[in-house]
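Please review this pair:
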Amino acid sequence: MTTNTQRLIETLLQWPNLDDDQLARQSGIQPRQQVNQICRRLEGLGTLHRKRGPEGKIVNILIAGNAR
């Protein structure tokens, strides 16, 4: 069984640099707040980096070598 964390990482591998709303839609993870919680945890673990994107929303960027 795939966890939401695994689904989130797999989604970012296929569609990089998504914001939390886009990531929730592409991964099918609901509610969207769960995506935010997972991304914040993964940032703390050094798996991804979160920064403000061109549209002003926070985008999630996987860090090479730490995604799996």
Q: What stands out?
A: DSSP finds three helices and three strands in the chain.
